[in-house]
Amino acid sequence: HAGSxxxxxxxxxxxxxxxxxxxxxxxxxxxxxxxxxxxxxxRQLAGQPIWIAGAIGPLGPLGNEGVPSGALxxxxxxxxFAQQAAxxxxxxxxxxxxxxxxALAELRIAIDAVRSVSALxxxxxxxxxxxxLTPAGDTPExxxxxxxxxxxxxxxxxxxVGPEVLAQVVERMASLTRRPLVAEPNAGLPTYVNGKLxxxxxxxxxxxxxxHIVASGA
Length: 218
Description:
This protein is of the alpha/beta class. 41% of the residues lie in helices and 18% in strands. Helix 2 crosses helix 3 (74-91) and helix 6 packs parallel to helix 7. The radius of gyration is 17 Å and the shape is globular.
């Protein structure tokens, strides 16, 4: 057992917009329900207390202001997020992980949408570039200030381009909020070395940076 106290459903891209792009919109309900069922089965096999987080990701194409554009206007986006959250809540998730968002504006829409259908706890996470900005240009400070009035139990960053970036994100957010912060870094972007994909962040570096993140306030 890895000792995880929270696991996520495999539903990150299971909203109707992303599924429609794969001609799988008709399977929306079944995919989201199966994601929760599989997580519950994993919890039962682990034989220990585990919370299940319903994973919700962004919709995809965004306009210049970081909000869904064209047919994907804000109201439509709200309904799409609410639809997925409602199914996940009905299936019995314990909380929501709204994650890997690239634009603060869309994240705020998603938080409001989830809250409109469920009172379960929400963790909100964004992804960051090497410049310690979201792809839409949001700074850690702007995110911390914008989420101060949102009903989330914690916020922070995930994925991104390695642990060092998220260490900086957490450190900068911690100076502006007393809210619990979350950091779920990946091991950086992979590169080909001798014909094999290799991640630059090795176990020792990853562990050292993780300790720095905890010390910074996550």
